[in-house]
Description:
By secondary structure, this protein is mainly alpha-helical. It is built from 6 helices and no strands.
Amino acid sequence: MSARCCETPFSAAPEYSRVLWSALIVNALMFVVEVVAGLFAGSLSLQADALDFLGDTGNYALSLWAMSRALVARARVAAVKGLTMGLFGLWVLARALLGLAGGDVPRAEVMGLAGVAALVANLGVAVLLYRYRHGDSNMRSVWLCTRNDMLGNLAVLLAASGVLALGSRWPDLLVAAVISGLALVGAAEILGRARRDQQTSCPRC
Length: 205
């Protein structure tokens, strides 16, 4: 097999490293904001989104570690991130199902404010990552995390509107289930791409 399989691609460029550090800091800050807001509002969808920010912070840290490694190492890191995303999706889905038993109506205004802040933060990160969206499995996984985050933020805003309009916690539970679905679909795509990258890597890498 060609030695090209062991080459370090553009993911090791200094500008990509700076982008990942920026994304890591933004996600760590938003985790703190959303976990506090989610507990205060009594919102499962906000708590799920907060945990997503925490997971992404860890994913960016792994990406920073892996980006100077060979393709097979980056693929293995991407597989770990895919598995983590899948477990997160299953946890949120389980919480949503347990929430069907009843509970208090979340505070829609807090959900809305936190959702807007999260959407702005993720939009900024997405703009920084957009040019790297078609890279290897590790770079692709970073982009998918951010894309899913924006969709999740929009869903939280819809949940806040539904809670406010209906005076019910059902929109919050529904959006939590949607966020779990996004995580599971993203996990499947990342694991598939990581498997392909590992198959095209030379054994000594």
